[in-house]
Amino acid sequence: MTGTRRMVAVLFLLPALVLLGALVLYPIGYSLFRSFFDSSGDFTAFGNYKTLFTDDSILTAIKNNAVWLVVAPTVATALGLIFAVLTERVRWGTAFKLVIFMPMAISMLAAGIIFRLVYESDPDRGVANAVAVSVHDTFAESSAFPQAHPSTKSPLKSAGDGAFITKEPVEAGTPVVLPLTGVPPNEMPDDAKAAEPARAEAGQVTGTAWQDFTRGKGRGKVNAPDTAELGYAGIKVEAVKDGEVVASTEAGADGTFALPKEADGAQLRFPASNFREPYNGVDWLGPSLITPAVIGSYLWMWAGFAMVLIAAGLASVPRELLEAARVDGANEWQVFRRVTVPLLAPVLAVVLVTLMINVLKIFDLVFVIPPGSSKDDANVLALQLYNSAFGDRDAGVASAIAMLLFLLVIPVMLFNIRRMRREGRR
Prior knowledge:
By secondary structure, this protein is of the alpha+beta class. It folds into 2 domains: 31-130 and 284-425, MetI-like fold (Orthogonal Bundle); 156-275, no CATH class. 49% of the residues lie in helices and 10% in strands. The protein has a 5-stranded antiparallel β-sheet with strand order 1-2-8-5-6, with no helix packed on it. Strands 3-4-7 form a 3-stranded mixed β-sheet, with no helix packed on it. The radius of gyration is 34 Å and the shape is elongated. The mean pLDDT is 89. Residues 62-416 form the ABC transmembrane type-1 domain.
């Protein structure tokens, strides 16, 4: 078209073609060739490809890649669309976009280290479990005495399901002792005070619930409060007759409590809620949740990427069409679903395809976040390729995995090429 000689064009293209051949075509061809040989270099035909669908760890990697391919791009694109639409309606939309996009400036390795700490099981260190514990404790307060239990000489016995009850009925006017042991001193309630013997009150059942243990051999009396022993502040006490609770109360800071006359002749019970193990959050890095947890960290990084591209597409949408739909009586949801989304379809396709190609080769987050006990459950093809090549020293299986990844990417690339050609003909 420009009169340029074919040889001149070839000379200009030659450096790029050499690099393309050396860095792309040759590795693909050699990987295909090497995939037909085993780890010792012997020809094995399709043996390595058979291993892909018989080895448990590789099958787990394929399954996890399928989950990644379906969930991560879809959710990231949906979040990006929501953020892009909502930020158009607020004054501080630019600042919000900056905050959402900021994780893209962090490397995958750094993000993996951050989320390894976020998902830490200890609520005092892991942000995710700190939030989970706070929300849980808002609706179901944890017990302060999870390890408390009566001694062999205690007037209490097991009532089943973690509760304890007095062996004999109690009488009004006669103080009751309800000794327990097993709570470490540093885990006693902060407001607990030295245990005091309960005073006899006419028409009331009174008593003391306390930690019947004093450090030092031979110190303290069994089943009797000592000045060095602390009361079980806030522990719940129930009076039970014929299997029904007739009265209940909570012990004071010194462990003393009082029940009304209805408790006369009843048995006193510590309900199991007093001894429930404290809620320590979710096992984010356990085998069952490790893949969703890693996908969550990916969304934190890439939702901003999707938002920026979709926001750019949204800025080019003709406002007249949106206003016309509103004039015709469409509500905001109908405008969004029937006008905005169809007009953004090309941009959404670009974002979705880009993220699909990206998740097929996900490696860094899966390498860093899962602990050793969950690495096999979080395995993906890119990580398995690395393990096969450098861990198992099996270049044949690693090459077969590389070819499988190549084949998985091809349909996505062809779809993208066809879409670009259709747009070019418009």
